[in-house]
Write a structure and sequence with these properties.
With 285 residues, this protein is α+β, with helices and mostly antiparallel strands. Among the domains are: 79 residues, no CATH class; 100 residues, Chitinase A, domain 3 (Roll), CATH 3.10.50. Helices cover 53% and strands 13% of the residues. Strands 3, 4, 5, 6 and 7 form a five-stranded antiparallel sheet that branches. It has a two-stranded antiparallel sheet with strand order 1-2. A hairpin with a 2-residue loop joins strand 1 and strand 2. It is extended.
């Protein structure tokens, strides 16, 4: 019995590899539950790109068995559910189909016609108009983070370079870090949560706010590495966020507002078109 099943599944696999996604005229079904049939073309796409013959037979066999169980359960449910239940399911399915269809149409219209460009000036203007909505919930910094293996040369020079604002010192530090550092992150131009940097250090700083107010650098070490952090700027939790820190968030807000407006205008346009063409009427008793 098992050998016959394997041989049958092997034939199915051959058929699956030869059919398109649509049912082929004259296709022989591979399974039946009452008056519902499963065809080889229904199995197209269930196999991974890389598979062995044994794996593919197992996958197809599992799929067929699950399909049979699903169809049997569906038939049993249709027999035992009340007509009211079935009508409610039909209404829900129709609502879901309509919602998905409309959503796909709206997405395609937005892709074709909606302006998705958000300028820096638009972001800044929105920020100025709504700055009270962008309050920091964490401490943020602009900083340089360096992790250097123990035993690396010229650590004293590193201690001078990483604190310095001098361009030449910064260039020397960069050249040194590319050669010796295990990690060199330059956040001088971008805001980052202070906690993200602290998580990269072996020690602990309990009072972030106090530390940032009175310190511009951090030096730590463990058994394997030296850690250096130069803090170029900071903003404390509770202050208004710098526009650069929330620009992507603002960009998404602006785009979402455009989407709402676009969809509302699309609905009104379709309604007016239907009204002009006499495509609908409201029937009253």
């Amino acid at each position: 019995m098992k050998k016959n099943l394997i041989a049958f599944l092997s034939v199915i696999l051959t058929a699956v590899s030869c059919v398109n996604y649509e049912h082929t005229n004259g296709e022989q079904p591979v399974a039946r539950v009452h008056n519902t049939y499963l065809y080889p073309s229904d199995l197209t796409g269930i196999l991974p790109q890389k598979y062995t013959r044994t794996d593919s037979i197992r996958i197809v066999e599992d799929y067929i068995r699950k399909w049979i169980k699903t169809q049997l359960m569906l038939k049993k449910a249709e027999i035992n559910l009340t007509q009211t239940d079935l009508e409610e399911i039909r209404r829900q399915l129709e609502h879901t189909r309509a919602s998905l269809t409309i959503y796909k149409y709206e997405q395609e219209m937005m892709r074709q016609k909606m302006d998705t460009t958000v300028t820096a000036e638009e972001i800044r203007q929105y920020y100025e108009d709504h700055s009270e909505n962008f309050i920091l919930d964490r401490n943020i910094v602009k900083a340089t983070y360096i992790k250097i293996p123990d035993g690396a040369p010229n650590l004293e020079r590193v201690r001078t370079w990483y604190r310095s604002e001098n361009k030449e010192d910064q260039n020397s530090l960069e050249s040194y870090c590319y050669q010796y550092a295990s990690k060199y992150d330059h956040f001088d131009d971008d805001w980052i949560a202070f906690r993200e940097i602290l998580n990269l250090l072996p020690g602990e700083i309990r009072n972030e706010e106090s530390f940032l107010r009175y310190n511009a650098s951090i030096e730590m070490r463990d058994s394997s590495y030296h850690y250096f952090v130069a803090i170029r700027d900071y903003q404390l939790a509770g202050a208004e966020a710098p526009v650069e820190f929330v620009d992507e968030r603002i960009r998404n807000i602006i785009l979402n507002k455009r989407k709402v407006t676009f969809i509302r205008e699309l609905e009104n346009s379709v309604y007016k078109e239907g009204l002009t063409k006499n495509e609908f009427e409201i029937l009253t008793p």
